[in-house]
Amino acid sequence: MIINSRFFNRSELMGFIALAAVLLVILPLTLDVFRLNLVAKYLTYAFVALGLVLCWGYGGILSLGQGVFFGLGGYCMAMFLKLEASSVENTKIQSTPGIPDFMDWNQITALPFFWQPFHSLTFTILAIILVPGIFALIIGTAMFKRRVGGTYFAIITQAVAAILTILIVGQQGYTGGINGMTDLRTLKGWDIRPDHAKVILYFVEVVLLFACIGIAQFIRLTKLGRILVAMREQEDRVRFSGYSVANFKIFAFCMAAIFAAIGGAMFALNVGFMSPSFVGIVPSIEMVIYTAVGGRMSIFGAIWGAILVNFAKTSLSESFPQLWLFGLGALFIAVVLAFPNGLSGLWADYVQPHIDRLFASRKAKSGWNGNSVADGAPAE
Amino acid sequence: MFGDYSLGDLGSIFVMQGFAGLILFSVYVLMALGLAIIFGQMGVINMAHGEFMILGAYVTWMTSNLFQVYLPSLFSGYFFLAMILAFLASGALGMLVEWVLIRHLYKRPLDTLLATWGLSLMLQQAYRSVFGAREVGVELPQWMLGSLHVTDSIEVPINGVFVMCLTVLITIAVAYVLYMSRWGRQVRAVVQNRIMAGAVGINTEKVDRYTFGLGCGIAGVAGSAFTMIGSTGPTSGQLYIVDTFLVVVFGGAASLLGTIASAFSISQTQSTLEFFMSGSMAKVLTLLAVVGILMLRPQGLFALKVRK
């Protein structure tokens, strides 16, 4: 394995440019606002996939509860937006004006205490990062310090997703129940519903995504990233070398949780509502499959995976609703059996060598013999 | 909160609630037995377990319809044939799945999770295409309807008693097969040391296939029994899967006794809590308690001491 001192090696730089070109130039120029907003929705899952690359691909920890963190981030954002939409003049037809409509329907007359701080945007943004982060810290500490991992960790995170869903659905008066928080309108007085707002939000989201890619890439390149990989391959050897394996796992899990929460918050902004159907077990497992299809070892692969699978889901389930579940199921099985490294693995195994050969032959003609094959090889 | 009830009422309520807990317990045990074999013994995470149960339920539904049309005189006994058919159908599908999918993944347990989840999606869609999206209910024979009056204030439904008896029988059968029979010894030998078991002449591939088939077959019987209590739809299986895994993990994956003990404690906690609060909050508290205890004791209640 060649450790590159540059931030991106050549193939990663190409991946970066390709993604930036598609997201920032090609898609906004070719798609109408409705489709662009759909892409924005897919990209919220790209945040989750990015986190899963760190924690599952690199750390070897499969979390089936990313929907929990996606939901926590989304609900924090939705609570702020809901409070803003429930100003006294907007809700004057209610029996108690000034509280969200679903509380009024459920005979709750005062704003619950944990809703109060969500009047402040600063607090909300902090909460989007800290609430899931601290939650992941608690779960991670409890599990990894006792060396629980692998399948047991997956099942327990799944149970946590189930618990949170039941809780949200059951506590209708505080959470909006099964319908979730709907009718979100403005952000600090700025209407998020019209077309130009959707476009601006899309660009904000893409910029945020690239910021998160930068953070993930930074983690991957530092010693930390290499310890994560070492840990996944030979956990005991890393432990015997004196590293605290648990702390590194907790860190990767918390980062994944925070990325997922940012995705969730952007989801609430872009789509205009948040509901428990994005929290539970089924969406959590679908988030894992986005990562698996794109490539659990590749940051860019996972992002493409999230976009492509969601795109396929939308277009296939519109036209062939029956085929879609068969297709998705087959995709799960194919990824596991046939290409465990996902699309990026296919790219690295079949496409990349041809490109490299092409470059190498050109360079050979011009009399320069670069070390491009090793450079373009996958990191592992 | 007890002020409104007399002592006698309270007694009956606790008996009834305890009995409701026992029915829930039977349901959990039935669901978890198959999984305890597949996950506990083989280490395979079978997310399609619920769909194997639903297959059993659909087989039962079809059998009852056939009896109604062609053999109405024997309708009261259709259930026993349906259970055998459900076992065979789910078991056969399980063996097929093992051959196509699972045998390639024994060294990658987390990947079995993804693959079987894909399988469960495909099965769900297959059920929807074949049987329709609506939930179907089985018509119970006359003798299963109604309830037993134990005293004036305590009564228990007959179908619940039937499911409980069934659970006891199946558990005894599974325990016998795994711990007494020659084949069960082979299963446990393969689980403990695959290479050595192969070296002494056990056909480990065959044992794997039949073990997986047995686990799926029991799931089918469980699904068959569920038709006595509720209706069946294409996605019903997903409702049970987390509960089932928690029961197995909480009990200690490889221990049959642990599975039963954890099913008992979880079901009794839940049905007792349901008396004091809403069903969803009871469920949340029960799951929280289970997750909390698992964090303190990750190996489950009855951990086997095995050298690794």
Short recap of the structure:
The complex is a heterodimer of chains A (380) and B (308). With 380 residues, chain A is mainly α. Chain A has 16 helices and two strands.
Structural account:
- The complex is a heterodimer of chains A (380) and B (308).
- Chain A is an all-alpha fold and 380 residues long.
- Helices cover 72% and strands 1% of the residues of chain A.
- Chain A has helices at residues 10-30, 33-58, 66-85, 101-105, 121-144, 150-170, 172-175, 195-221, 223-233, 235-240, 245-271, 281-294, 299-319, 321-337, 342-365, 372-376; strands at 186-187, 190-191.
- By secondary structure, chain B is mostly helical.
- In chain B, helix 2 (49-70) packs antiparallel against helix 3.
- The longest helix of chain B has 35 residues, at 7-41.
- Chain B starts with 6 loop residues before the first helix and ends in a 12-residue tail after the last helix.
- The mean pLDDT of chain B is 84.
- Chain A binds chain B through residues 62, 64, 142-143, 146-148, 150-152, 154-156, 158-160, 162-163, 166-167, 169-170, 281-282, 285, 288-289, 292, 322, 325-326, 328-333, 335-337, 340, and chain B through 43, 45, 47, 101, 104-105, 108-115, 117-122, 124-125, 128-129, 238, 241-242, 245-246, 249, 278, 280-281, 283-284, 287-288, 290-291, 294-295, 298.
Task: Describe the largest sheet of chain A.
Answer: 2 strands, antiparallel
| Strand residues, percent of chain A | under 5%
Class based on secondary structure composition and strand pairing of chain A: mainly alpha
- Find the count of extended strands of chain B (DSSP E, 2+ residues): 2
Give Rg of chain A in angstroms.
22 Å
- Give the strand order, joined by hyphens, for the main sheet of chain B: 1-2
Work out the oligomeric state of the chains in this entry.
Answer: heterodimer
Main structural class of chain B = mainly alpha
Please indicate the percent range of residues of chain B in DSSP E strands (runs of 2 or more).
Answer: under 5%
Mean pLDDT of chain B: 84
